[in-house]
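ugh finaly. both done.
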Amino acid sequence: MLNRLAALSLAVLACALPASAQAPPPAAPIDDPDATLVEELVVRGRLPGPAWWRVSDADTTVYVLGVPSLAPKRMEWDRAIFERRLEGANVVILPFVNVRAKPVGSIGTAINLMRLRSGGPFEARLDAGTRARFVAVRTRLGQDAKHYGTSNPLAAGVQLAIDYRDKSQLTNMDPAKLVRLLAQRKRVKVVEKSYDLGPQLGGILRTPASTGRICFDEVLAQAEAGPGATLAAARAWAVGDVEGALQNERTYERCLAVISGGRTYDERTKADTAGAIAGALKQPGHAIVLVPLRPLLAQNGVLERLRAQGFTVKTPGED
C-alpha cells in the first residue's frame, strides 16, 4: 500500500507526457473542490484535544475525528478523549486516501519513467526569474538539477512537493498511523480502503501542460514560504480550533483535483467515506472514523451527505 501522495506522485512521474519547451498557454486558476465550507459545521471543540463531530441514529454513535491533510510527523496531541472512545468501539475507520499500483505494470512504469527523465533538467525550461527561485529552493532542499530530470511541469511540481515535505518533516499519514497502532493494541477492528491507480493513468496523460505549470508555480511558492502555515494549523488542530486548523496549505491537494479524472476520484472517496460511516451505524454501539477536515466539512462533503440521508450530525460545540 502506498499513501496517496507517494502513489500519485509515482503515477505522474512515470506516465505524464513530456511538455513542449515553449511556455504553456495560460490556464484557469486551480479550483479547489473543498473551497466552500458549511459554516455551521466549523465549530471550535469544547472538549480537550482535537475537535470531534458525531453522527448518530437510534442506537449507534459514530465519533468523527477531522484530521489534517498535512501535518508534522509524530505531532503531539491530547489523546485522552480518543482513548476513552476507543474503549469498546466496534471499529476504527481510517481516512480513505490510499492508492495502490498493480505490480503487473511495474516494468512498463519503469520504462516510462526512464523516457520521462530524459527531458530534463526541468530548470532549463524556466524563465530566468523563476529559474533563480527554483534553484534557490532545490539547493535549500539539498537537491541538484539532475534530480528534476523532466520536461513536464506537473512531474517537476510533484517531485518538488515530495522533497519539500520530506525536508520539512511533514506527512499526510499522521495522526492516522498512530491511531491504527493504538486501535490494534486494543484489538479494535481497523478498516482502510485503497484505490486502484489504473483507471486514473489515462487522465493523468491528458492533463494539460498549462495546468501542470500552475501547480508547479504554486508548489514553488509554498516551498519558498516554508512550513510555518502548516505548523500553525497543526497547533490549532491539536486544541480543537477548527477554523485555525483549516488554514493549512492545500496546494498539492488542489493540484490533484484538476488532474483529468481528479474530480471523479474526489467524488468517489467522499461517497465511500459517507457509505462507511452509514455502514458503521448499522451496528449498535459506537465507532470511530477519521476524515480529512476539508472533505468532511465542505459543501457536498461527508457530513452534508450523511445529513441528507437522515442521520443526526452534531458539531464539536454541542453536548
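ok and the 2nd:
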Amino acid sequence: MKSFEPLYRPFAAWLRPLALASLVANIALIVTGAAVRLTDSGLGCPTWPRCTDESYTTTAAMGVHGVIEFGNRLLTFVLAGLAIACFLGALGGPRRRSLVRLSVAVGLGIPMQGVVGGITVLTHLNPWVVGLHFLLSVALITVAFAFWRRIDEGDGAPVPLVPAPMRTLAALTALAGFAVVAVGVVVTGSGPHSGDRGAKRNGLDPAAISQVHADLVFLLIGLSVAVWFALRALQAPAPAVRAALTLVVVELAQGLIGFVQYFTHLPVVLVAAHMLGAGLVWTATLAVLWSLRERPALSPAPLTPSPAQEPVPAA
C-alpha cells in the first residue's frame, strides 16, 4: 500500500474540498430526483439497470423524459467518482482509520442508492420505495457530512462543550427534524406528483397527513428556537450559537415555502425548492449537533521504560 502513496497525495491535498463536493453532490441528488418526479420522467427509462431492454443509454424515441431520467442516473457516477477521490485522499494523508472508514461508508452508500433507485423503477414508482430512496439520501448526507467535518477534528474521544440537558434538547430537536423529513416523504407519496401519470399513490388523505406534517414543523421550529436561546443563555461557544441561528433561519424559509406551495396547489418550482430545503434543514441540524462537542487529537501514549532503563535503587 505504501508504494502507492505518491499517487494518493494529490487527493490528500484536496481532501477537504473533495469532501465538501461530495456532501453538496448528495444534496443535489435530492433536487435531480425531484426533477425526475416533477416532470413525470420517473419511468423515462422504463427498466433497470438498462435504460431500455436493448440499451444502457436513453434513445431519441424516449424523448425528454428519457433524457431527464438518464441524466439523474449519470449523477450516480459523479457521486461515485467523488467518493473514490475522497477514499484515495484519506489514504494519502496521515493514515487515520476514522477517515478511511467514513470514506468507505460514503462509497458503499452510493451503489446502495443505485439499487434502491432500480427497485423504484422496477416497482413502477411504488411511493413507499420512492420514500425509501429519499431517506437513503438523507443517510448519505449524514455520512458525507460526518466525513467532511471529521477532517478538521482529532481522533480523541468527543468532549462536550455544553451541559448534558442542552445536548438532550439538541438530540430531541434532531429527532423532530428527522420526523418532519420522514412524514414529508409520506405527504409526497399521497400527492399528485408521482413521477409518472400512471403511478400509484399511497392512498392516505393528503390533507390529513399534511396537517400532521405541519404540526411536526411547528414542534421542530419551537425546539430549534429553544436550542438557540438556551445556547445564548449558557454562553456557549459562538460556532454553536451561529449554527442554531442558521438552523432556525433555514427552517423558517423552508416552512414558508411549504405553506405557499400547499395553498398554491403544489407548483413544481416550489416543490423542487422544498425538496432542496429538506436537505438543507437536515444539514443545518447536523451542524448544530457537531457544534456541541469537539474531538481533540489523540495524546501520545506515555513511554514505559524497559527493565534495562529502570533506575537502580541507591545502596
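summary for the 2nd one i guess: The chain has a mean pLDDT of 89.
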